[in-house]
Write a structure and sequence with these properties.
single chain; alpha/beta; TIM Barrel; eight-stranded parallel sheet; 8 strands; globular; nucleotide metabolism
């Protein structure tokens, strides 16, 4: 299947995992931020996770360096614009970008300034390219629950103005959903949509709890429902959409090999799957690469891809007008 010209929808992409290497070097130089090296090829070794990453936690270490150059309004705006630019150049029609606002307050920005800067970068790209987007605010499970309340409260004013949803991400521990019931419930009351990282590192039960306790409409990854019947049944019966990121899943050892990835079995069994990059820089990937990987392993038909595209549009947190525009692109 010729994927170069196919329209694409991406629902799971982390801003801080998708920063151009050249941009990191440039911002660091302008803002006086020390880097381990300014050689592009050497810096890539620090930023790109190996295919044989021993764990999710090891994979997540690659985010500390980009975060250093994401502490000013100008840098956040630029990095967001460039991510949307990169996506538009490979015919992504709609992109939902997620990031943790609290990570970008280390040099004095407040949460609202951080969110506004990211929205500004997205709007600039929408005005220049044939792409539309929205923002998902991530709360880190590794931070105190109070931080999630801060993000929910400060992000509320941006709902319908670029922000659409709330997310929980970072290192995944068993039973995390119980700690975050209150802030996520509040977020839903305010009008946030809900997507939760779960089932990425060995616990299908986490997926079940993300749906039952937090009201997750989509699940980031969800791979381990394959080993937990109750979660599998809940996802299938409730038509919960899985945001699957093939390269990342192999890197973090959610699966050992691409050939063992359950994405196509899920798809064949009627579970709604979407294909995503997760982190364009950390996983050294693009949407075209991810779709190619799935196609190479499982021989996607034109109808398979069309269904995944439609699933992605329908599962997006976009308004109806944007969804209709996206469907018209295929």
């Amino acid at each position: 299947m010729n994927l170069l010209n196919e329209p694409k929808i991406e629902l799971h992409c982390h801003l801080d995992g998708s920063v151009r290497v050249e941009t990191i070097i440039d911002i660091a130089e302008k803002e006086g931020i020390p880097l381990p090296t300014v050689d592009k090829e050497e810096l890539e070794k620090e930023l790109i996770a190996p295919s044989e990453c021993p764990s999710l936690d090891e994979y997540l270490k690659r985010f500390s360096l980009p975060n250093k150059v994401m502490q000013s309004k100008e840098s956040l705006k630029r990095i967001t614009f460039e991510l949307f630019e990169d996506a538009a150049r490979e015919n992504v029609k709609y992109l939902e970008v997620r990031f943790g606002p609290l990570l970008h307050t280390l040099k004095g920005l407040d949460i609202e300034e951080v969110i506004q800067s990211v929205i500004d970068g997205m709007r600039d790209a929408e005005n220049r390219y044939e792409i539309k987007g929205n923002i998902i605010l991530s709360c880190l499970r590794s931070m105190p629950v109070e931080g999630a309340f801060d993000v929910v409260e400060k992000g509320k004013k941006f709902l319908g103005k670029g922000v659409v949803a709330i997310d929980l991400c970072a290192s995944e521990d068993e039973g995390f959903s119980k700690r975050f019931v209150e802030p996520i419930t509040l977020a839903k009351e305010y009008g946030y949509r809900v997507t939760i990282h779960a089932g990425e590192t060995g616990s299908g039960k986490n997926v079940l709890e993300a749906i039952e306790l937090l009201g997750a409409e989509r699940i980031g990854h969800g791979i381990y429902i394959k080993d937990y019947d109750a979660a599998y049944k809940k996802v299938k019966e409730n038509q919960i959409v899985l945001e699957i990121c093939p390269t990342s899943n192999v890197q973090t050892k959610a699966v050992n090999l691409f050939s063992e990835h359950p994405i196509y079995k899920f798809h064949e069994d009627g579970i709604k799957v979407t294909i995503n990059t997760d982190n364009r820089t950390v996983s050294d990937t693009t949407m075209s690469k991810e779709i190619d990987l799935v196609d190479d392993e499982f021989n996607l038909s034109k109808e398979d891809y069309r269904q995944i595209y439609i699933n992605s549009v329908e599962a997006s947190f976009a308004d109806q007008e944007t969804k209709e525009w996206c469907l018209a692109q295929y």
